[in-house]
Amino acid sequence: MAKGSTYMRGLCIVLNVLLAIFGVILLLFGIVANSDKAASLEELTQGVILSVGFGLATILLSILGMYGAYKEQVLPLLLYSVFMAIEFTVLIVLAIIATLAQPKLKREIEQSYSRITSLYNTEAVFQREINKLQQKAQCCGLNDYTDWENAIPQSCFCPPAYQDREDKCIGVPKFHNTEWIRNAHSEPASPEDTEYSVYKMSCVPILTEKVMNYLRILLGILFTLATIEVAAVIAVLLLWYKIHTRTPGTDFSRDNNSRTKYELQPDKMP
């Protein structure tokens, strides 16, 4: 009995260490996703809150589980089982709902970006992020180049020797207003140009896919976490059962090496 209890206690501790690691991963994921200003939408913000909330709860519960398993104390193990079961239920329900709602969620994200009709009047931080995306993904504006009004940034311009210029670029007449985007990443166009050649593709599909990838990664982490939680709760309940089914008339103590000693107690006379 002592040997089986020791193995089960070790298994509980290992599983809760894994849970703590996944809790930290969820926290870091929430921080990274929240720092992406180009993908800052209400839909992603809800995912960030979910990630941080479950991350903190998982870390705290894993500490409780490790403590209860190491000390072999019934109350912490029971509290751990109850709260972990509650977290698992909430987590799996929300994850399933989010998985089934992905097509609808994708449409809502596209509509949210499409409602931003003027990039010129947005915050400078958001402009810089869109500029980086435009240069990397070869797109221009959320809907098209008109989102920048009379301040189309250099990142929208097709290179002079661009191979797919005819298919992926569009000619835009030179604006009378030569005011440029107000951030350090942009350079004014050459005043000799009579027409600008800018990327035809909008950035909404790319941004939408970026947000969806964040949500898919989050769902993957949550489903993996849920699987480990089930194993951890089962292991804790088995440990609790072993504690309560030890041979009657035995007592135990711990030596200096933290090993459990079981000692037979003499029968008590009435």
From TrEMBL:
It is found in: Membrane. The chain crosses the membrane at residues 12-33, 48-70, 77-101, 217-241. InterPro entries: Tetraspanin/Peripherin, Tetraspanin_animals, Tetraspanin_EC2_sf. It comes from the Eukaryota. Gene3D superfamilies: Tetraspanin. Belongs to the tetraspanin (TM4SF) family. This is Tetraspanin. It comes from Pygocentrus nattereri (Red-bellied piranha).
